[in-house]
């Protein structure tokens, strides 16, 4: 998730993520980050100006990683249905494979610690922007009902997020069949072509 950063930055970001998930944001201090990461406070300040800067870099790093993960294997030559199916199945896989990153984004997307610019970049550069374009294309080509594409993406995201949360809290199962049914339900909610035809 943090492979594009140097070793010091990686240690700080990984440690911060673990601390925030285990202890919450307010209890995660710079001194605790330094202690648990093995990076001196001075060295941390060489790369980050403040705890807020670390949190925002962590947010952007996870969003970038999530964007790459969700849109992996999607190509323009794939049908709208194939791209749709891949993206939402990838999101489910992402939530299962990287639960701490998933929880961080869910808990802190609306936090005042996250700068507005970071939130805007996250939407455009993550996976929501590319999916909004896909949905817009689906509307323009008469595959989807004529609703606002951004709204539809967020509506489907909410459905998948609650499925993942329920699974991570041991409230429900998340088998391959259930994941496929959930994605199909999202498709059927907005598509004029019900069911998978591929």
From TrEMBL:
PANTHER family: ACREF/ENVCD OPERON REPRESSOR-RELATED, ACREF_ENVCD OPERON REPRESSOR-RELATED. Keywords: DNA-binding. Gene3D superfamilies: Tetracycline Repressor, domain 2. Residues 29-48 bind DNA. The lineage of its organism: Bacteria, Bacillati, Bacillota, Bacilli, Bacillales. InterPro entries: BscR_C (IPR032551), Homeodomain-like_sf (IPR009057), HTH-type_Tx_Regulator (IPR050624), HTH_TetR (IPR001647). Pfam families: TetR_C_10, TetR_N. Residues 6-66 form the HTH tetR-type domain. This is TetR/AcrR family transcriptional regulator.
